[in-house]
Amino acid sequence: MKDRSLTGTLILASLEIAILLAGIYLIHFDDRLLYAPGTPKFWRVLLYFVMTVALLNVVTRLIKWLYQRQNYAKRRGAKNFIYGVENIRKLLIGGVVVFTVFSLIGIDFTALFTGLSLVAAAIAIVSKDFVNDLIVGIYYSFTDVFEVGDYVRFYTYRGRVTDIGLLKVKILNDNDDVVILPNGKIYTSEIINYTRRDVRLLSIDFEMDIKAITDVNELERELIESIRGFSDLIEPNSYLLKIVEVKKDYMEIKFQFRLRYMDRERQREVKRKVVREVFSYVSSHKPR
């Protein structure tokens, strides 16, 4: 979903309303053009198609305008609502396109649905993943589990959500790679939304040989001392060392601290420098 300028939006909305009014006039007040002898069915079907698409676009714009006017857009999940409305619009337009094509090639809808009912089970099996992704995509479009701009982790993928589509979710990872994941896969995975926590809290995960650790409290003090050069950026008494899991030969450790203020660029800079300091410390304390 791309942002448009206000002028462009007004022009498109005016054009769509003009198409609706012209179509209503032709259908109800001057049907000679549509039903005159020799007028092909193609033009009537095309008119109904264009009017339906225009109506869907106008209704979508009206819903989003009313939503923003009520200040709901300031709430968490507001971006998802906008994406949800857009996704439903795309889904309905897709359905309109299918019905239009069937109408143009002369397929009887009654016979079509009767035939589809005979192979519904086969279609359900073949399109199970597609339908599942579609339903989950609509669900995420109207919830605040995560929204565009949130920093999240799905499975082993970590990054910032850039798009919530009908079938896929796009995230931009720390290497600036765009990762595209099916909605169904995300729904069945563990979701960690780092944005929902204290945004000033930084966590550094690392592993350390058990033989190199004689005292956990001493390890915490030495780690704090190793990043003393950043003390002006870190809240005092916010340091915390957690033992996540103990393995046979090593420990999984999480070192956390809280910044004095929130600045994305400064946060990335501090984390990069602190990771290097922690890595240097861990490397220098390997057992011999």
Automatic annotation (TrEMBL):
One of its GO terms (cellular component) is membrane. It comes from the Bacteria. The chain crosses the membrane at residues 7-27, 47-67, 88-105. Keywords: Membrane, Transmembrane, Transmembrane helix. It comes from Neolewinella xylanilytica. This is Small-conductance mechanosensitive channel. Residues 130-196 form the Mechanosensitive ion channel MscS domain. One of its GO terms (molecular function) is mechanosensitive monoatomic ion channel activity. It is found in: Membrane. Coiled coil: none annotated. InterPro entries: LSM_dom_sf, MscS_beta-dom_sf, MscS_channel_2nd. Pfam families: MS_channel_2nd (PF00924).
